[in-house]
Specification:
5 helices, 33% helix, alpha/beta, eight-stranded mixed beta sheet, Rossmann fold, binds magnesium ion, binds guanosine-5'-triphosphate, 204 residues
């Protein structure tokens, strides 16, 4: 749930990176932290990790500047992708305004992607939110692995598995190299702000 501070002319919203374990959510945030220094307004915080596995969440605050005289602040979060952390995922999702779903292009992760998207849909539903209505983009991560001869799914396959019904913007990319990361976040922010604008109109 975004916070509208009309006095300070400020909007603060929440974007969650969701997806299967080891898909690259934390790596996305690390890349954003390294690359968009000017927009980063604080440290990246990783709460409770075991090796490179997220056990609770990562958090990164950003300031996107002014749109129509209104200061836009966004808090980026990642969820723990491992199946057993279902209740933590749900907790992190509370008050979400926009979602970047990070799918793993690795062929062996096909089922994990689809299960994670189902899990997202179910968790959103518990908050009364609809996956078909919430600002959402898909990121098909780890495209770089193809160069190493590791079997990955084609973009068409991923679209078929994950985006046949949703029909949301999708972006091939590599969190490791930084390809497609900024563009996916930008599109997610665009959709999120559009949706918040509608909400604001309703409130007036
Ligand atoms: N080759 C390649 N490896 C990647 C890419 N993105 C992430 N990885 C690697 O995949 C592993 C898991 O990445 P994380 O970012 O920790 O994955 P996560 O989605 O946060 O995983 P959980 O915290 O368990 O949910 C790490 O070893 C990363 O370096 C990518 O685009 N290409
Ligand atoms: Mg992680």
């Amino acid at each position: 749930m975004a916070i509208f501070n009309l006095k300070k002319r400020e909007i603060e919203c929440k974007v969650v990176y969701y997806g299967p374990g080891r898909g690259g959510k934390t790596t996305n945030l690390e890349y954003i932290f390294k690359t968009f220094r000017k927009q980063i307004t604080g440290e990246m915080v990783s709460i409770n990790t075991e090796g490179d596995r997220t056990l609770f969440f990562d958090f990164l605050p950003m300031g996107l500047g002014k749109i129509k005289g209104c200061e836009i602040k966004v808090q980026l979060y990642t969820v723990p992708g491992q199946v057993q952390y279902s209740s933590t995922r749900k907790l992190v999702l509370r008050g979400v305004d926009g979602i970047v779903f990070v799918a793993d292009s690795l062929a062996v992760r096909r089922d994990k992607n689809m299960l994670s998207l189902k899990d997202l849909q179910a968790n959103l539903k518990e908050y009364g939110l609809n996956i078909f209505k919430i600002p959402l983009v898909l990121q098909y991560n780890k495209r770089d692995l193809e160069e190493q001869g590791i079997p990955i799914m084609s973009v068409e396959q991923l679209d078929h598995d994950l985006n046949r019904q949703l029909k949301v913007p999708s972006f091939p990319g590599s969190a490791l190299k930084g390809d497609g990361i900024g563009v996916a976040l930008k599109e997610c922010m665009k959709l999120t702000l559009k949706s918040l604008q509608k909400e604001l109109k309703w409130a007036q």
